[in-house]
Amino acid sequence: VLSRCPAGALALLLGTLLWAPWRALHGAPLAELSGDQDFQLFLHKNLEFTRKIKGDVAALQRVVCDTFQLCKEEELLLVRQDLGIGQAPLEQCHSRTFRAEACFSQIRDGLRAYHGSLAAVLELLPGHAGLVETLQLDAANLSSNIQQQMEDLGLATVTYPTEGPGPLPTFSSHFHHQVGGFFILANFQRFLETAYRALRHLARL
């Protein structure tokens, strides 16, 4: 089920949070795990995995730019307001009261959301189905990795209420579909940047 925020003030707020400079996280309850070899291995492996996914998203962004001449987000903001495509939240990974279970849960849920929303990109770029399907598989695998690690660490699974509509929006035109694909990829890239920084922070504790 796709978990996205509606367009408007909330989406803008979440976008601002995700672009904000990374702040030092205090009170992380993982001091007892920081020296755990299995936990460190998990973090470093999934940092590399996240970097790989970011590269694939960037490759698809270049395809959208080259194919549809949709390259600059600021030129499409007015169209975005009509689409109802928001950013999967990660505010628990920014919070100064950072809790691993809350951050991990939001990363896991966001990856599941983008796995679903990439279906719109798959429809838009049938000639690049292999790359889109690989990206979907990688998002699902990283989500599963995080879920398994949470269980292994005995971290509580946190489920946040879904904000906004669940299914993908119905695009009223092919152009809206193109812009929708553009913003799904742009939002996913921002999401991955924040998730990467959170994992890197945990690896340095």
TrEMBL record:
SUPFAM superfamilies: 4-helical cytokines (SSF47266). Keywords: Disulfide bond, Glycoprotein, Growth factor, Secreted, Signal. GO terms for molecular function: cytokine activity; granulocyte colony-stimulating factor receptor binding; growth factor activity. GO terms for cellular component: extracellular region. Pfam families: GCSF (PF16647). InterPro entries: 4_helix_cytokine-like_core, GCSF/MGF, IL-6/GCSF/MGF, IL6/GCSF/MGF_CS. It is found in: Secreted. Its main location: secreted. GO terms for biological process: immune response; positive regulation of myeloid cell differentiation. Belongs to the IL-6 superfamily. This is MGF factor. It comes from Lophotis ruficrista. The gene is Mgf.
